[in-house]
Amino acid sequence: MASRRAFIKGVTLLGISNDWMRTIDQLSKNIHAVDGIDWASIRALFPIANWDKIQFNSGSAGVMPIPVRDNLLGLIEYVNSKAPYHVWGEWQKTKQNTLSRLSEMTGCLPEELQIVRNTTEALNMIIYGLYFKPGDEVIIASHDYPFARNAWLNRSNRDGVILKEANVVLPASDEEVVKAYEAQITEKTKAIHITYITHREGHIMPVEAVTELAHKSGIEVIVDGAHVIGQIGVDLKKIDCDYFGSSLHKWLSAPLGTGLLFVKKDKIDQLYNHPSSNLDVRDKMDKYEHIGTRAWANEIGISAALDFHEMIGQKAKTDRLQHLKEYWMNKVYDIEGVHMHTYMDSTHSAAVSTFSIDGFSGGQIRNIMNDEYDIHIKSVGGAWGSGIRVSPNIFTDYNDLDRLVGAISDISKRS
């Protein structure tokens, strides 16, 4: 709370007219007025809940609640009321405060973090920053995010890095996952790229176990944590990975175009500098700061998203997302022709899950849901075939889920 008050005081002194502190304190009292959290009041803070479609694609990008949105609008107004670079200079302490809060949230040092625009950018900085020579091997998997795989394929094409595939068919047990990565390790293996929560199935991978396995052989670990922050949380010290990238605009509901890059402190100077950075910051995360003019208001707006997140609490949020997932999954498990490709238990999945229906491609189901049921949802494909990814959020209610279940039941009868 102290750091939040310091942030709000600092922003107010910069001339931004808002009553965010009073708003967040009042919201906190209101939603905790009864034992537990009033999720209907939380839902009311998200304009998307009143959209003419139901949003079941939070996995692609989240949306800001009204207080976070209004705070961002105030920041945008302020940065355009003066010379932008003058304002950015004023906001440097605020940014450092945000990094400190993010470090507390993720279990690392502030000097190991840098704010970036998304997970893809964070991973690219790592993938293209690592010193590899022709013949060095990197282990990836088919369930990794396509853009991350593309980055490795391009790196392989340019520098002769050899890519090995961990053969994992999801969902799978932790033991199966670890063995799949272990089977690809050779004396030439330099790194393992692992996705913490897969973007298709929402499967939570045993990252800590894979990292322990890798480090025994002196292998570095790069973690794609796009869906972690705000959904289940992460303790970087505990999992002990070397590199980590995440998006803050997904499950933290921060402004679009905000992400996080983590590099273990003793690894920073072992990565190539960002092409535009000064040579004298080689051993500091500041080397990823030199990307030119960008949407600074969005970066500063992360703090308001952290306020909102802390008001609810990670455990309450994770528990709510798990409950919503279990609610609809339990209702469709026994529908003939419907197949789930995600384990229900909280150890292996949180908000994101995937299903398919016999006789329909994911694209066909997506279009039917959009056109006939006003449901916005994402089609995906995996080793199991073509299907639909469902990713509700804390603004989702039972009526939304019941409409989804009804749509799945109706479509299954058409096959």
Please describe what this structure looks like:
With 415 residues, this protein is an alpha/beta fold. 42% of the residues lie in helices and 14% in strands. The protein is built from 16 helices and 13 strands. The strands form 3 sheets. A 7-stranded mixed sheet has the order 2-8-7-6-5-3-4, sandwiched between helices. The chain has a 4-stranded antiparallel sheet with strand order 9-10-13-12. Strands 1-11 form a two-stranded parallel ribbon. Helix 11 links the parallel strand 6 (220-224) and strand 7 (243-247). The termini are far apart.
SSE layout and pairing:
Blueprint: H1 2-13, H2 20-31, H3 39-44, E1 54-55, H4 66-79, H5 84-90, H6 92-106, E2 113-116, H7 119-127, E3 137-141, H8 146-159, E4 162-166, H9 174-182, E5 189-195, H10 207-216, E6 220-224, H11 236-239, E7 243-247, E8 259-263, H12 296-300, H13 302-312, H14 314-332, E9 338-340, E10 353-357, H15 362-373, E11 375-376, E12 378-382, E13 385-390, H16 398-412
Parallel strand pairs: 1-11, 3-4, 3-5, 5-6, 6-7
Antiparallel strand pairs: 2-8, 7-8, 9-10, 10-13, 12-13
Helix pairs in contact: 1-6, 2-13, 4-13, 7-8, 9-10, 14-16, 15-16
